[in-house]
């Protein structure tokens, strides 16, 4: 009899602003007992240091497994390694372009490519503003190829007390897409009476 394995999600962080979103995703997945496989780009490391109180080594410590972005032999680079999907959070326009073109020259674009070919969940927290025609075209086409674009756009109706509430709500909605409930934000239940 085969034992059911823990659910397993690949988390990739790239050099778009919003490193805290990736960190909070890792914390939420840890609480939910999901096995995480983390890949950090060079520019993700830079934004983690600049934007947050975390050092990349603290972020790595939040994951069950960490893979070097240049290690194309890591398990996640093969479709034969079972995963329940991948989230790129935040996702730069450069990595979006690489995924769009299928140009797999690092472990993030390769693993995203694997998700699409294996028809697994791929969520791209694509962050840029304003958006050029190239960005919009890439987003449309990766959506057609099976991924979900989740721009980290706040829901103002939650009447957030601060940035942390907005981040928690966004992270909760991202993980909804994997059928996971962080229970870390209030859901819309109609107008407050
Ligand atoms: C502080 C900072 C913020 C950035 N924010 C964004 C952003 O929001 N979106 C984006 O596409 N690129 C952004 N960039 C540029 C990317 O880091 C750059 O394009 C990089 O090559 C992305 O590589 P990666 O996808 O391998 O991490 C930012 C760079 C820095 C230093």
From TrEMBL:
Belongs to the UbiX/PAD1 family. It is an enzyme of class 2 (transferase). One of its GO terms (cellular component) is mitochondrion. Flavin prenyltransferase that catalyzes the synthesis of the prenylated FMN cofactor (prenyl-FMN) for the ferulic acid decarboxylase FDC1. The prenyltransferase is metal-independent and links a dimethylallyl moiety from dimethylallyl monophosphate (DMAP) to the flavin N5 and C6 atoms of FMN. FMN binds at residues 15-17, 41, 92-95, 127. It comes from the Eukaryota. The chain crosses the membrane at residues 9-29. Its main location: mitochondrion. One of its GO terms (molecular function) is flavin prenyltransferase activity. Dimethylallyl phosphate binds at residues 157, 173. Residues 8-176 form the Flavoprotein domain. Pfam families: Flavoprotein. This is Flavin prenyltransferase PAD1, mitochondrial. It catalyses: dimethylallyl phosphate + FMNH2 = prenylated FMNH2 + phosphate. It comes from Aspergillus nanangensis.
